[in-house]
Specification:
This protein is an alpha/beta fold. The chain is about 40% helix and about 15% strand.
């Protein structure tokens, strides 16, 4: 369920790879069919539906990890077709006086009715339904807007539902189809990349300088215009060194490094460096209204993701990526990249396509327009028969109408139709299993209803509820599971603890783990020096053959600044007592900038990790001398002890030791054994 055929994925390769690993390496296949997301009521309906689908072969019965978690699946009545046209046809045909009688149009308002049904039900859910939550005093809490996720198979009629939500003053967030490159933040990033390729593009430079990435004012641009020079890039360089404009100095300092790296780094890595060094996320968060922060952040992440989606991120060419963006900006909306999906949009309903919801979850999921059948295929297509185990295709042809298919093409068309049905079921599986507690399904009556998602879920719900399918009464809702409006856990801390211990909710969710807090202030001169010093040590230890000239060029530092840093690095690496930590012949393995996530959910980074046969060393670089202040030294050592505690968990029985290394060659071994 985690990959899609329309993106060129071939799920059958998983079976092929599994067989190869079992045969060649004696691998053991370990199945996992226990859900830690969905309530038992949701899992029961999922089991009923997919175990009865012939196209969903190999389905294994699922179980719910939290067996006492309340859940519910509802299938609402289909919105019927209007009978106005039938009524007009039944009347006797008479001439209509257009001055007295308006022309009656049989307008299709089914989706407007479904939208009103959606709005009315959301109002009843919010504040009434009980959501399992250990942070609430009684183990549950009243539902909020943010607990509801609306899923649609396609965006065709999405505007109708959005209009109904707006009219009802229900907050919601949605991602627009093909709208990513039209957003201001994506245009800022595109202009920045275009400038890095063509530093003489003065309009792009002015665009970037005025963007939140650098936040230069009109006065700053006037300063650049008044400085002599052939291009604005030359003028910016002079303005950064001769004027007291901190924004201009920062812009030149960052962009000069990014320009030099633009022809060697892959696009994704270049963007990652820009986002980090430019403090992009925080700067945009400060520049836009609070209500837009979530969408802007999501769009910035989606723009970076685009760099991986282009040719699977294999080609480092920045011009190639920019040409791809130009083509996508001119493409149809369904082919252009979508806006980013907002992860935490505050207290608002989320509207997503089922494709975009993969990997997400929500206490309440509403699947709209489930009564529609599968979309017809293209008018013409390329037929390829390429079995996963074969080295090349067994058949290739282009066909148009079905009536013109040859015998082999008809056979392949039947096989392709089976795969398309399986893909459709994969998508339904994704939609249903996004629901943590409640799944609601609705739709409109019409052509293609038989075999639709609505019919499949409805039959599964009635089977789970053991209701006899004696009649096709679509005017009656069917449901299975608990009434969440009545699921109020008795108050009191003891009751709440029992609710947690019974498995109703994951005890690990008792406190929200932070993902780290970015410092509000821009890096100081000392911090910038420390970052560059760490980078120089990294380059010297990972590639000892690097020349001094090349490293200085990459650093964008003057001879005076780089010379001092180079001498400190050489003194540290060549210190006789430290040689075994930097000589590859003396250790088993070493790595620089080793990142991990702490128990508190915060990102940590170890400067250098060196492994020997019987011990592992954690090294931490400090720019300066061994401090005489005991409080400062204690802070350094506490940081190292945290690193060593994390490494001890994976050290495979080896002793973990730690050392502080100072740029003057001094070092201090931190007593780890006693602390651990």
């Amino acid at each position: 369920q985690s990959i899609y055929r329309f993106r060129g994925a071939e799920a059958r390769l998983f079976d092929q790879a599994a067989g190869y690993l079992q045969e060649a390496f004696g691998a053991v296949k370990v199945p996992q069919h226990e859900s830690r997301r969905c309530a038992p009521a949701v899992i029961e309906v999922v089991n009923r539906l997919f175990s009865s689908e012939p196209e969903f072969g190999g389905y294994q019965h699922h179980t719910a990890h939290y067996t006492s978690k309340p859940g519910r699946v509802e299938v609402l009545p289909l919105v019927p077709k209007s009978d106005q046209k039938k009524q007009i046809e039944s009347e006797s045909i008479v001439l209509r006086n257009p001055l007295e009688r308006p022309f009656e149009i049989d307008e299709d308002v089914r989706r407007e009715i479904e939208a009103r049904q959606l709005v009315d039900r959301i109002r009843k859910i919010v504040g009434s339904w009980q959501i399992a939550d250990v942070k609430a005093e009684c183990g549950s809490r009243a539902a909020r807007y943010k607990d509801i996720m609306i899923l649609v198979k396609r965006r065709t009629h999405l505007g109708i539902y959005e209009h109904a939500l707006r009219a009802a003053h229900i907050p919601y967030v949605t991602s627009r189809q093909g709208g990513l490159l039209a957003t201001l933040e994506a245009q800022d990033m595109t202009a920045l990349l275009q400038f890095l390729v063509t530093p003489f593009a003065e309009l792009k430079l002015a665009h970037v300088l005025r963007s939140p990435v650098f936040g230069c004012s009109d006065d700053d641009l006037i300063v650049i215009a008044q400085v002599p020079g052939n291009t604005w890039w030359d003028r910016l360089a002079r303005a950064a060194s001769t004027t007291a404009q901190p924004a201009l100095s920062r812009a030149y300092d960052l962009m000069s490094r990014w320009v030099e790296q633009s022809d060697s780094l892959p696009v994704h890595d270049q963007l990652d460096r820009i986002y980090f060094e430019g403090d992009v996320m925080r700067r945009y968060a400060q520049a836009v209204p609070e209500a837009m922060c979530g969408s802007v952040r999501a769009n910035l992440h989606a723009f970076m993701q685009r760099a991986l989606d282009t040719d699977a991120g294999r080609y480092p060419s920045l011009p190639r990526f920019l040409h791809e963006l130009i083509d996508l900006a001119q493409a149809a909306p369904q082919e252009a990249p979508d806006e980013g999906i907002v992860g935490d949009a505050g207290d608002a309903v989320r509207i997503l396509t089922v494709h975009g919801a993969k990997g997400l979850e929500s206490p309440v999921v509403w699947l709209l327009e489930a009564g529609a059948g599968r979309e017809p295929g293209d008018a013409y297509e390329v037929m390829v028969d390429w079995p996963p185990q074969a080295e090349m295709p067994a058949h290739f042809s282009v066909c148009t109408r079905k009536a013109e298919h040859g015998s082999k093409q008809r056979e392949l068309a039947q096989s392709e139709d089976m795969l398309a049905r399986r893909e459709d079921l994969n998508l339904l599986y994704v939609a249903m299993t996004r629901a943590q507690q409640a799944l609601i399904v609705s739709g409109c009556d019409g052509q293609g209803r038989e075999g639709s998602w609505y019919e499949k879920v409805r039959h599964a719900v009635r089977a789970a509820a053991r209701a006899e399918l004696t009649q096709d009464d679509l005017a009656v809702a069917v449901s299975y599971g608990a009434d969440l409006a009545a699921q109020v856990t008795p108050s009191g801390s003891a009751k709440a603890e029992r609710a947690v211990d019974s498995g109703a909710v994951d005890p690990r969710l008792r406190s929200r783990m932070p993902t780290g807090v970015r410092r509000a202030a821009l890096p100081s001169r000392g911090q910038r020096y420390g970052t560059r010093f760490h980078g120089l040590i990294d380059r010297l230890t990972s590639n000892p053959s690097s020349s001094r000239e090349a490293l200085q060029k990459d650093s964008s530092l003057s001879e005076r600044e780089f010379g001092s840093m180079w001498d400190s690095a050489q003194r540290l690496i060549n210190e006789p007592g430290l040689a075994r930590f930097f000589d590859a012949k003396q250790y088993v393995r070493a790595a620089n900038e080793v990142a991990y996530v702490s128990a508190a959910g915060e990102m940590r980074r170890i400067d250098r990790l060196v492994e020997f046969e019987d011990e592992v060393w954690v090294l931490d670089y400090k720019t300066g001398i061994l401090p005489e202040n005991a409080a400062v030294l204690a802070e350094y050592e506490a940081q190292l002890l945290e690193y060593t505690a994390a490494i001890s968990a994976i050290a495979a029985g080896r002793r973990v030791r730690a050392m502080l290394l100072f740029s003057n060659g001094a070092h201090r071994i931190v007593p780890v054994t006693e602390a651990l």
